[in-house]
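thought: fold this chain, then report.
action: predict
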Amino acid sequence: MNSIDTTTDVGIRDYILWELIYRTALRISEALSIKLKHINLKAEKPFVTIVGKRNKVRSAYLGKTLTENLKRYIRNNFGKKYDEDSFLFYSRIHGKKTPITVKGAELRLKKYAMLANLTCKDVPVNLHPHMLRHARATHLLESGWNIIQVSKMLGHEDVSTTMRYLDITEEQTLSAMISIESEAEKKIEKKWDSNSLLSFFGKTK
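observation:
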């Protein structure tokens, strides 16, 4: 991200595109298909509506920093009154706003990766947008999210797809399932009060 020149309009656009993809774990095609009508920045928890594979719709929360960046970006590029069917990310070709292609976005990411690699060899020069999505999912899992939450964020229909996608080991799978079961137990409403004989069985040693 530090290799992007944010003193230019194109640099600001690219920075927000990659920030959005990482923060929400979007596919590059999903990010580039976002229109202004899909962005809700006035909600208590701002979010973006995503149309994924097979037209499956899901939402992703944006977070405080990304929300503020998007507000400035939209204000500077579209003004206060705009066509809600306009694409959030676009290129100017002969003065006209044109949707960015997946290939074009991939080439720009590789350009930034090559620049970053000059100072940090850990950054692969063949960096692909999908790596950002995969990295975000892995980081969320490592930070304590359970596999169900990560799966929903990725837009997977089946948790087993997420397991394969993240190359999760049997030990990690067991840990994830225990986490899910623990969360479920916390939400079970107790049907007895403290004076009931049944309350004895609700206690733990």
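thought: worth noting. The CA atoms of residues 162 and 168 lie 8 Å apart.
final: tokens above.
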